[in-house]
Design a protein that fits this description.
Length: 115
């Protein structure tokens, strides 16, 4: 498992990032980047039998057991945040756009094998 460098003064624990009430957008991260060793994931449930188009934004809906499965978590880019602290994101691998994500659907994780 990844361990922080005890001499790194810039280290921020994941718990601190995950407990913060807001997540910076990709534009905000240009001037206030998150630590290199972390990435952002978004929870979303894709249903089989539905054709998800890349050019169609999809509204995020909380589903039963959504947060219980890591397979529902996708690396994502935060595109925007609205006044009610809901987010529009792009899933990095599939390029699908999701909107209306609450803060609880966004999570920080460590990159595997970072040292």
């Amino acid at each position: 498992d990844w361990e922080p460098d005890p001499y790194d003064q810039n280290y921020v624990p994941l718990s601190t990032l995950n407990e913060h009430p807001t997540v910076l957008t990709s534009k905000e991260q240009e001037t206030h980047p998150y630590p290199e060793e972390v990435f952002i994931s978004c929870y979303f449930k894709f249903y089989s039998g539905i054709e998800y188009k890349k050019d169609t934004p999809y509204k995020w809906i909380e589903t039963e057991d959504l947060f219980n499965y890591q397979s529902n978590s996708y690396p994502c880019t935060i595109l925007s945040r609205d006044e009610s602290n809901h987010y529009t994101v792009k899933l990095d691998k599939t390029e699908h756009i999701l909107w209306n994500l609450p803060r609880k659907a966004i999570e920080f994780s460590h990159h595997k094998y970072m040292s």
